[in-house]
Amino acid sequence: MFAVARTAAALAVGNAVIVKPPETSSLSATVLADIVREVLPQGLFNIVTGDGKGAGNAIARHPDIKRIAFIGSPETGRLLQRSAAEAAVKHISLELGGKNPMIVFPDCDPDVRPGMHLWQREVFGPVMAIGRWSNFCEAVSLTNSTEFGLTAAIGTHDLDDALGMARRVRSGHIWINGSSAHFPGVPFGSMGSSGVGREEGRDELLTYTEAKSINVMLRPRT
């Protein structure tokens, strides 16, 4: 899924792409390459396997690769930025995980229990950190207390409260009375240590292009 999502925009505006899948799960990407090879000209869609220190670092530092899109940990994302910057000026977008809050107002009759453990870090498992808040400002403060800012969800019947909270929460994508839905053409991205850049729309397409201004001085008519 991630390989398709990261390459579609680049291919759509006329670029060739290189995909480096995780060294522990490369099989699906190679199968995708076999499928793509049947419909795209040779050389447009390429797979490079290997670990981050070898293949990943080589891609980041290659002077002819001007655009990089990465999904992974904040630590690896920072290393990637550093390696790329040492080699050339590159455009980089990063999706580095998140700690995505769901803010439930009292009018939704929440069933909450105290517990601030696991509040700061992303957990890949069926674990939820639940905490109480007593007023609007405290809810904002708790929500923004992590370094991440990928997504957030707000549950309330009061639209004024929902929009007021949405404006103050530091997250790149916010749902009100829902979660997880993506909408065609609506940019999806993050803030803070969750990464930089926007995907899934015109904003992403433009990052795989470069604007060029050409000024022509015409001779005056005689």
Automatic annotation (TrEMBL):
Instruction: Kindly identify the residues recorded as the active site.
Output: E95
Q: Which domain of life is it from?
A: Bacteria
Where does the secretion signal sit in this chain? none
The protein's matches in Pfam families, at most eight in alphabetical order, are given as: Aldedh (PF00171)
Gene Ontology MF term list: oxidoreductase activity, acting on the aldehyde or oxo group of donors, NAD or NADP as acceptor
Q: Which residues form the Aldehyde dehydrogenase domain?
A: 3-110, 111-214
Family under the similarity heading: Belongs to the aldehyde dehydrogenase family.
Q: What is this protein called?
A: NAD-dependent succinate-semialdehyde dehydrogenase
